[in-house]
Amino acid sequence: MPPLAHDGLNSIVAALGPTNTGKTHHAVARMLEHPTGMIGLPLRLLAREVYDRVTAQVGERSVALITGEERRVPPRPKYFVCTTEAMPVDRDVDFVAVDEVQLAEHPQRGHVFTGRMLHARGVRETWLMGAETMRDRIRELVPTATVEVRPRLSRLASAGRISIKALPARSAVVAFSTAQVYELADRIQRIHGGAAVVLGALSPRTRNAQVAMYQAGEVRHMVATDAIGMGLNMNVDLVAFAGLRKFDGQRERMLETSELAQIAGRAGRYMNDGAFATLAPLPALGPETVFALENHAFPQVRRLFWRNQDLDTSSIDGLIASLRQRPRHASLRQVEQAEDHEALMELAGRPEVRRLASSPERVRLLWDVCQIPDFRQLLLESHLRFLSDLYQQLAGHRAVVDVDWMARQ
Asked: What local confidence, expressed as pLDDT, does residue 3 receive?
C-alpha cells in the first residue's frame, strides 16, 4: 500500500475508506515518525489497544493514555493516545489524528467529532480517518485537506443466515442490549464450549481480559455490542447480527446500512476475506443491503452535528448562551441532546451551585465537572447529585475532594 500523499508541513490528510483498509494502522505509524503526536479514538478499548502498541515501540515513559476511565500520564510524554472526547487539544504536538470522523453525524457524540475535525490540528501534520461517506463534507468544511480514498484489503461477502449451532470458529455475534449479549453468550457456551463477552459497561481490566482470551484462541466465539464496529482489531472471520434494531439514546430504530457495514466490516483481517450473516431466527438481509455491504456503496453524509467551541465562561448564563449558539453553515446541525449540557442546565438551577460559580475560573470548573460521564449508569438525579457534591467540594474553601466521600461513591 503506497503512503498517503503529503508534504509533512502543516498538511491535512483525510484517509477515507471502508473497514480493513489500514487507516488507523498507518496513522499510528505516521505519528511515530514525528517527535510528538496525539491520536483520538472512538472507544476506550481501542485506545488501550493502540496504547499497548505504541508503548511496545517507544516505552511507557513516552506515552500517555487518556480516556474517560483511565489516565496514565508520565512526566514528559511524547505521544498521547486518547478517546476522542478526552483529547487534550490545548497541547501543541507535531502530529494529530482523529479516527472514525463519520461519527460526526451521531446525535449524542457527533458534535465532538465535528469539533475535532474542524479544529484539532498538529503543528506539522493532521490526519482525519473515517468512512468514504465523509468525502464531500470534508472537502466542503476542510477545503485544504488532501482526500485519499483507500480500498479494502480483503473481500467481504454475505453468508446469508446462520444458526448458533453452525457458527464457525472466529465468529463474532453482535447484539444490541446487555441482556441479549449475556443470553447469547450462555447459549454459545452450552453449544460450543465458551464465548468471550465484550461490553462497554465492563471494567477496562475485564474487557481487556475477554479480548485477550478470544485473541489467544482460548474461546472460538465472541458476543459483543456494536462497539466492535469502531476499529477493534480482532481476528474475526464472520460477523453475525443477532438484531438489526438499537436504542440510540432517544429511540429504538433500525440500523442504517452504513452502520451495518461498519460492524460487518470487522470480519476479515488484512488479506483474509470476511463474511457477514444474520443469526437465525432473524431473516437474512435483503439483496439491496447485501449489495451495499459487499460493494461499500453508501450515500454521502449530508449534515454533521455541531456545537460552538468558543465558550463564554464569564458567567453561567454566558456559558449557556454560548452553548446555544447556532451554526452558520448549512452542513452543520446544532446538537440537540448532550448530557453535559443537560447537566449544566440542571446544576445552574441549584442556588448552592450558582452561588459558587462566581468567577470565570469557577464557571470553567463547573463546565469541566458537567462533562464527567455517568460511568456507573445511575439514575439521572443520582448522577446530578454526584456532580453537584463534587463541584461544591472543588469550588469550596478547601478546594479538595473528601477521600471518604469519594470512596462511598
From this structure: 39
The alpha carbon of 266 is separated from its chain's Cα centroid by a whole number of angstroms, namely 15
Q: Are 363 and 316 in contact (CB under 8 A)?
A: yes
At 28, the amino acid letter reads: V
Tell me the C-alpha distance between 370 and 55, whole Å: 32
Mean pLDDT in consecutive groups of 10 residues from the start of the chain, 409 residues: 48 92 92 98 89 96 92 97 95 97 92 96 96 95 95 90 95 92 94 90 80 90 81 82 84 87 85 91 94 92 95 96 94 90 95 94 96 76 91 88 79
Q: What are the distances in angstroms from CA 183 to CA 159, 173, 263? A: 23, 12, 20
Cell readout for 189 is 457456551
Q: Which domains does the chain have, with CATH numbers?
A: 11-149 (3.40.50.300), 156-295 (3.40.50.300), 307-408 (no CATH)
Residue 335 pLDDT: 92
Which three cell numbers mark 250? 432517544
152 burial via Cβ count (<10 Å: 0-12, 13-18, 19+): middle
Write the CB contacts of 340 (distance below 8 Å, at least 6 apart in sequence): 367, 370, 371
- Give, in order, the Cα–Cα distances in Å from 146 to each of 11, 84, 138, 251: 8, 22, 9, 37
pLDDT at 47: 92
CA 31 from centre of chain: 19
Grid look-up 453553515 returns: 329
Beta bridge partners of 72: 65
Say how many C-beta atoms besides its own lie within 10 A of residue 392's C-beta: 15
Q: How far apart are CA 407 and CA 409, in angstroms?
A: 6
Q: Show the CA angle centred on residue 334, arms to residues 330 and 340, nearest 5°.
A: 160
370, amino acid identity:
C
